[in-house]
Each structure stands twice: as structure tokens, then as C-alpha cells.
Design a protein that fits this description.
- This protein is α/β, with parallel strands linked by helices.
- The protein has one domain (about 10-260): NADP-dependent oxidoreductase domain (TIM Barrel, Alpha-Beta Barrel).
- The chain is built from ten helices and ten strands.
- The strands form two sheets. It has an eight-stranded parallel beta sheet. Strands 1-2 form a two-stranded antiparallel ribbon.
- A hairpin with a 5-residue loop joins β1 (about 10) and β2.
- The longest helix is centred in the middle third of the chain and has 15 residues, at about 85-100.
- The model has no long low-confidence stretch (mean pLDDT about 95).
Length: about 280
């Protein structure tokens, strides 16, 4: 139920993931990152999403520590980078990430991109970490349906979540429907399309009606579509604004107007065609 910032979606392994978390992609300045994490936790966020390639796991760990929050109340996600994929290298990469975070376990560990010929071995490593209790849930990021089908054809564990580029210009309806059928949660990175859709007249009109910003309307649209979101900001006021989503509701007509903005337009790389 979408009641407040602590509302969680139950994953298929029974673990709850907060519907709203803080994303820290492109946060390069360590003190700024520490402050953003602390601001988010003070605001009531329980979830922080980082990745090895972001280069800020230490700062996230420090922010968590300085916040004074109880680790068991928080939900921390990181991801294995492409150059570390493979069985042994993934286990090493996880250990490195855990040390940088200065934590005993992770709540969620993801394969960052479906590196051809490697993601199945990477998944075997994640299954081992999961069985050993070092990570509470395992999932993937940027997987198309065919990647998921291929992975699940030879895996013991099904991913609990698929973190994908998703916003009004790229609504990912088919992939979301497939994930729903398979009981795989969907999480949106770049949920407001890096701000590129905020001037859409339909969004501004809906925002005005509710006394909200276009960004808040988009984030609420995700939540009502049962999508987990990780909006990113280093500014305390924006972090608060991104969390102020639980005192209004979009009508089905408004939801449809936002759905109509879809153009299958990516602002990030296509998972079938990335070269990093």
C-alpha cells in the first residue's frame, strides 16, 4: 500500500523493498554524497541505490553511518560492473563493494548490464552470495525480456527485480507486463528522464491541478504503476520534494494522459547494444 515513504513492495522472496529510494548515480563529490544520504535518511528514506561503477560506495556507507540510522531498518543496493562479470570476479567485486560500504551484508545486489557470455556465470555467483546470506535479495538491471528468459532457463533463483530505464517517454509496457507475469518487480532508473520531459504541457497541466511539480506527478505515475523508483538529487529540498508523493492521487484519465507520452525513446544505452 502506498501510504508513506516507508511503504514497501514485497518481492517474490518475501523481502520488502521501499517504493521510493535515493539514487546516487553521478554523485562524484564525496562530502556531497555523504550529505545527500544523510538528508535522505533524515527525510525518512529507507533505501539507497549505488553501484561499483559510480565510485561512491564509501560515501554511501559513510552517510549511512553518520545518519545514526539502524542498519537493519535500511535497504542498500549495489551492482556488479561489466568488467567484473564472471563467477570468481563477481565474488571478488562483491567483497570489495561490501568493504567500501563497511557493511556485513547488502539488501540487494544486481547485475548492472547483461554482458553477453558472462551474465549467467555472474548470476551463479549472485546465487551463491544469496545462499550464504551475504545479500538478502538478488536481481538484474537493464535486462530485456529475452535476457531474463535466457537467465531463468538455467538458474536456481529467479531475479526479484529488474531495474530499467523507465519514464513517460519510455514506458516499457511489454517488459513490465512480462515482469509482472513472472513476479519480478520493476524498478525505474532515470524515473523523470533526467528532467527532459518536465515541460510537457500534459504534465504541467496535471501538476497545476494537484498543486505539485511535473517531477512529482511523474514519480506518482510510477508508484501507481507499481514501479519502484530511485530519484536522484544532492539537494536537501529536492530530496524532500521527491518524497512528497503520498498526499495526492492521479485519476485513471491522468494516468492515461501520461501513458500517451510514450515514444519508446531511450536517453540511456540499449541493453542489446552497449559497448562498455
Amino acid at each position: 500500500m502506498l501510504k508513506n515513504l516507508q511503504s514497501k513492495k514485497t518481492l517474490h522472496n518475501g523481502i520488502g523493498i521501499p517504493y521510493v529510494g535515493l539514487g546516487v548515480y553521478q554523485m562524484k563529490d564525496p562530502s556531497e554524497t555523504v550529505q545527500a544520504v544523510k538528508s535522505a535518511i533524515e527525510t525518512g528514506y529507507l533505501s539507497v541505490d549505488t553501484a561499483a561503477v559510480y565510485g561512491n560506495e564509501e560515501s554511501v556507507g559513510q552517510g549511512v553511518k553518520e545518519s545514526g540510522a539502524d542498519r537493519k531498518d535500511l535497504f542498500i543496493t549495489s551492482k556488479v560492473w561489466n568488467s567484473d562479470q564472471g563467477y570468481d570476479t563477481t565474488l571478488k567485486a562483491f567483497e570489495t563493494s561490501l568493504k567500501k560500504l563497511e557493511m556485513d551484508y547488502m539488501d540487494l545486489y544486481l547485475i548492472h548490464w547483461p554482458v553477453e557470455g558472462k551474465y549467467k556465470d555472474t548470476w551463479k555467483a549472485l546465487e551463491r552470495l544469496y545462499s550464504e546470506g551475504l545479500v538478502k535479495s538478488i536481481g538484474v538491471s537493464n535486462f530485456h525480456q529475452h535476457h531474463l528468459e535466457d537467465l531463468m532457463s538455467s538458474s536456481n533463483e529467479k531475479p526479484v527485480i529488474n531495474q530499467i530505464e523507465c519514464h513517460p517517454r519510455l514506458s516499457q509496457e511489454k517488459l513490465k507486463a512480462f515482469c509482472q507475469e513472472e513476479n519480478i518487480a520493476v524498478e525505474a532508473w532515470s524515473p523523470i528522464a533526467q528532467g527532459r520531459v518536465l515541460d510537457e504541457p500534459a504534465l504541467k497541466q496535471i501538476a497545476e491541478k494537484h498543486g505539485k511539480s511535473s517531477a512529482q506527478v511523474i514519480l506518482r505515475w510510477h508508484l501507481q504503476n507499481d514501479v519502484v523508483i530511485i530519484p536522484k538529487s544532492v539537494h536537501a529540498n529536492r530530496i524532500k520534494e521527491n518524497a512528497d508523493l503520498f498526499n495526492f492521487e492521479l485519476s485513471s484519465d491522468e494516468m492515461n494522459k501520461i501513458n500517451d507520452l510514450n515514444q519508446n525513446e531511450r536517453f540511456g544505452p540499449d541493453p542489446d547494444n552497449f559497448d562498455f
